[in-house]
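Thought: the user wants the 3D structure for the chain below. I'll pass the sequence to the structure tool as-is, report back what it returns, then summarize two notable features.
Action: structure_tool
Action Input:
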Amino acid sequence: MSSVTMYSTQVCPYCVMAEKLLAKKGVANLEKILIDRDPAQREVMMTRTGRRTVPQIYIGDTHIGGYDDLVALDRAGKLDPLLA
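Observation:
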């Protein structure tokens, strides 16, 4: 299974929904980077993704985007191959 990294905050409902979807898909080792606990990581996230909102999800080295992007990939049948 590919590694999954998610930039998140402690109070983001979309982050929680993304985490639940990934868990349903069998992702056991999700690396969460809490940008509200470590403000320097917010700068890293914005530089890396070009976006300011959370969640920002990476599967391996591939930037997926946010929760809506993750769901769209799943509905299109493209999420499982990325996770494999």
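Final Answer: Structure generated. Residues 4-83 form a domain with the Glutaredoxin fold (CATH 3.40.30.10). Helices lie at 13-24, 39-49, 67-75, 79-83.
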